[in-house]
């Protein structure tokens, strides 16, 4: 099996994935690792190979895929998001399967009318005649030192809209499985990646490497089982929550960490089942706090599991300010591991030193 | 039933040179396909290309079909006006009467493999693509038999099996979407084109130029058609556009200015544009047309233009009257026969309205259908989520 996996890795030859291939050679045992970037590229490659209707469109697209599939299927666009996003949605109306890449989701605001009005609502307005099998992907949320206009998280905005599906992968398994699911899905999917996670390496199983691997849309994953407090997070904050859980363990608090994976549809069942078990909840997101994902989760838990709550729901989010540039201020503007630890302790009514 | 008449060429008016002068027996009007050669009202004006000839070929059959189709559209839109005033149609209703020649002439130049996309003034374009009166009126009145099962409304008519992609409420959005359809046609090697229609109001939209730029770079078979009725909502073109020569606004893209009230000119221009786009990429057609109604039913249409102007266009340039005069002067039908067609058409419209009025409103469960193509068994909610929940199929 390892040999087959290694062959598959070598087929995806491009400068970008070579580091992952050499990592593979260093591990003689079963443990394999893959960066999120490689995971995404391999998913794109496999889906393009499997379905000739899939094509990519965006600014300065991955060279490896361009070399392999040619300029007819990997299209470099001018810096005109409204125009090329509209073109991609029109192509989806006709039955093709575009994957539109935004350099960051901040630029998706230039195209948001097409994402919402042209893509999300068309199946409904046409009573099922016009379905829109399109994926909008790209880095979302804060990067490092890029300032206010380049750091916003759009999960809550897009997830508010019926007709869209919104996915937030965390690790490489998520990246591969959810991107493949998104491309195969007949509805418009907003696929929110994270700039700072691209280079991170995660262990990956053979099952995940198989070209038919796919994750279900709308299902969260319990990354860490626990019994004292539920921590629900998405994207980069899942990693922070897992670190917070390790710290909490030393203080005798056994945290359950949920990787949401899907913001729309939101896996309300998994969240509520977990809260009914632990009776305490902390939501974590990098985004602006008001009207955010945490607010939706809190409302959902209050509606469905009020009697099970032993403490008010705690919400950790980005600071309610535009993202500053100075490193010390930037650090204060995004959640840190200690914020999550503190909130979990508050939820457990432990004194916070 | 057709009376035998001597089609004498001496009776022909100044416009015409019928080739059928040898025929002494006039065949039934619906089947005569003898070619007739005519000239369009005015020559085409071209930008960055060579204009097609103003000499067009048609037949009696075609002219009568044009007459009937446009008369049907005219009657349909006027009936919609009454239904709106009777409060059977709600919300937005943008009527196309006056512009029928564009929809009919364009359809005559295309096949169903070619795509059409337009904005919200879409009732007649939908009909031209093969829609039925019942689908139109039922949709306008929010009933099940509507083309979007009552869930779209006036601005959201679609007919995918005829490659009609709507029906869009956001001014200008349909142009990049149309270029996307053209992209998909080229990608699929379909040898077909897309006509993306927009108004003089939308002609100033940035996304139009973004889409045109990409279409020209990628040689997409896209034809951008500006239905210039000279008013963007209540604003006259000269107040909204620094350059109202819309056919030239494509700059590097060729363009053609067409008399949009002359159905034969429209057909000729669209035929020319289709051939051009398949070989050379995007081209712009500016249809010089006019709408008798205001922008929508909430606009009387007389605060920003004079009634004299409207009457003037009706008298001088009405597309249906133009065809009527052609038919009569060529002896292709009698006045009575044409009036009979108009009566038939009126009855068709009345019957469809009666049928639509009887049609039921959508089932309550339809609130939750088609949110997704694949709902994944996800839950959706009504206004009170503890009262109304549904699983999306």
From TrEMBL, chain A:
Pfam families, alphabetized: Transket_pyr, Transketolase_C
EC numbers for this chain: 1.2.4.1
Oxidoreductase listed as a keyword: yes
Domain Transketolase-like pyrimidine-binding: 34-200
Superkingdom to which the source organism belongs: Eukaryota
Catalyzed reaction equations: N(6)-[(R)-lipoyl]-L-lysyl-[protein] + pyruvate + H(+) = N(6)-[(R)-S(8)-acetyldihydrolipoyl]-L-lysyl-[protein] + CO2
The keyword Transferase belongs to this UniProt entry's keyword annotation: no
Cofactors that this protein relies on: thiamine diphosphate
Role, per record: The pyruvate dehydrogenase complex catalyzes the overall conversion of pyruvate to acetyl-CoA and CO2.
Protein name in UniProt: Pyruvate dehydrogenase E1 component subunit beta
From TrEMBL, chain B:
Enzyme class: oxidoreductase
Pfam families named in the record: E1_dh
Record key words, sorted: Oxidoreductase, Pyruvate, Thiamine pyrophosphate
Protein name: Pyruvate dehydrogenase E1 component subunit alpha
InterPro entries, sorted: DH_E1, PDH_E1_Alpha_Subunit, Pyrv_DH_E1_asu_subgrp-y, THDP-binding
PANTHER family assigned: PYRUVATE DEHYDROGENASE E1 COMPONENT SUBUNIT ALPHA (PTHR11516:SF60), PYRUVATE DEHYDROGENASE E1 COMPONENT, ALPHA SUBUNIT BACTERIAL AND ORGANELLAR (PTHR11516)
Enzyme nomenclature, EC number: 1.2.4.1
Subunit structure: Tetramer of 2 alpha and 2 beta subunits.
Function (record text): The pyruvate dehydrogenase complex catalyzes the overall conversion of pyruvate to acetyl-CoA and CO(2). It contains multiple copies of three enzymatic components: pyruvate dehydrogenase (E1), dihydrolipoamide acetyltransferase (E2) and lipoamide dehydrogenase (E3).
Residue stretches making up the Dehydrogenase E1 component domain: 68-363
């Amino acid at each position: 099996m390892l040999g087959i996996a290694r062959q598959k890795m070598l087929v995806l030859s491009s400068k970008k994935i070579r580091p992952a291939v050499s990592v593979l050679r260093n591990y003689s045992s079963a443990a394999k690792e893959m960066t999120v970037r490689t995971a995404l590229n391999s998913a794109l490659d496999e889906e393009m190979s499997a379905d000739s209707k899939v094509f990519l469109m965006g600014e300065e697209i991955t060279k490896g895929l361009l070399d392999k599939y040619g300029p007819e299927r990997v299209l470099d666009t001018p810096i005109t998001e409204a125009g090329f996003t509209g073109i991609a949605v029109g192509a989806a109306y006709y039955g093709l399967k575009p994957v539109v890449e935004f350099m960051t989701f901040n630029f998706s605001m230039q195209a948001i009318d097409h994402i919402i009005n042209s893509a999300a609502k068309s199946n409904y307005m046409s009573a099922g005649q016009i379905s829109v099998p399109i994926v909008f992907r790209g880095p979302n949320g804060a990067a490092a030192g890029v300032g206010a206009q380049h750091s916003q998280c759009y999960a809550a905005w897009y997830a508010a809209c019926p007709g869209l599906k919104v996915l937030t992968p965390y690790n490489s398994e998520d990246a591969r499985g959810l991107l493949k699911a998104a491309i195969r899905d007949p509805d418009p999917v907003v696929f929110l990646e994270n700039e700072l996670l691209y280079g991170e390496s995660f262990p990956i199983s053979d099952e995940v490497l198989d070209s038919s691997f796919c994750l279900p849309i709308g299902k969260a994953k319990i990354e860490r089982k626990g019994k004292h407090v539920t921590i629900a997070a998405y994207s980069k904050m899942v990693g922070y929550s897992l670190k917070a859980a390790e710290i909490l363990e030393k203080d005798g608090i056994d945290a359950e960490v949920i990787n949401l994976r899907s913001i729309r549809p939101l896996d309300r069942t998994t969240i509520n089942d977990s809260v009914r078990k632990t009776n305490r909840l902390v939501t974590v997101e990098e985004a602006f706090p008001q009207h955010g994902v945490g607010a939706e989760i809190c409302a959902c838990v209050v509606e469905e599991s009020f009697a099970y709550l032993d403490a008010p729901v705690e919400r950790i989010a980005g600071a309610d300010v535009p993202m500053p540039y100075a490193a010390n201020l930037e650090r204060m503007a995004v959640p840190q591991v200690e914020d999550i630890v503190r909130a979990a302790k508050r939820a457990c009514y432990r004194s916070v030193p | 039933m057709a009376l035998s008449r001597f089609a004498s060429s001496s009776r022909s008016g100044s416009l015409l040179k019928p080739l059928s002068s040898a025929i002494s027996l006039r065949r039934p009007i619906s089947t005569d396909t003898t070619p007739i050669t005519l000239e369009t009202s005015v020559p085409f004006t071209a930008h960055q290309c060579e204009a097609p000839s103003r000499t067009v070929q048609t037949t009696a059959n075609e002219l009568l079909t044009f007459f009937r189709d446009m008369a049907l559209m005219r009657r349909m839109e006027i009936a919609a006006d009454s239904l709106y005033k009777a409060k059977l149609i709600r919300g937005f209703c943008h009527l196309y009467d006056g512009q029928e020649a564009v929809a009919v002439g364009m359809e005559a130049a295309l096949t169903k493999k070619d795509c059409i996309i337009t904005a919200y003034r879409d009732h007649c374009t939908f009909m031209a693509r093969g829609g039925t009166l019942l689908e139109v009126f039922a949709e306008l009145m929010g009933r099940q038999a509507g083309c979007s099962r009552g869930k779209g409304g006036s601005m959201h008519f679609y007919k995918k099996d005829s490659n009609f992609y709507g029906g869009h409420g956001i001014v200008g959005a349909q142009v990049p979407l149309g270029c996307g359809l053209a992209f998909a046609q080229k990608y699929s090697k379909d040898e077909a084109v897309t006509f993306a229609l927009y108004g003089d109001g939308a002609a100033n939209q940035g996304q139009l130029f973004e889409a045109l730029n990409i279409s020209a770079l990628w040689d997409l078979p896209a034809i951008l058609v500006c239905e210039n009725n000279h008013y963007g909502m209540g604003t006259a073109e000269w107040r909204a556009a620094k350059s109202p020569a819309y056919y030239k606004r494509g700059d590097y893209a060729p363009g053609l200015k067409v008399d949009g009230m002359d159905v034969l000119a429209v057909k000729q221009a669209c035929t020319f544009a289709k051939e051009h786009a398949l070989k050379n990429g995007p081209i712009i057609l500016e249809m010089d047309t006019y709408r008798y109604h205001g922008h929508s039913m909430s606009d009387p249409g007389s605060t920003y233009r004079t009634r004299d102007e409207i009457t003037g266009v009706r008298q001088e340039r009405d597309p249906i009257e133009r065809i009527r005069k052609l038919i009569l002067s060529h002896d292709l039908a009698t006045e009575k026969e044409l009036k009979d067609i108009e009566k038939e058409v009126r009855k068709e419209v009345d019957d469809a309205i009666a049928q639509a009025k009887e049609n039921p409103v959508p089932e309550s469960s339809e609130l939750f259908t088609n949110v997704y193509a694949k709902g994944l068994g996800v839950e959706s909610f009504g206004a009170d989520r503890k009262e109304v929940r549904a699983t999306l199929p």
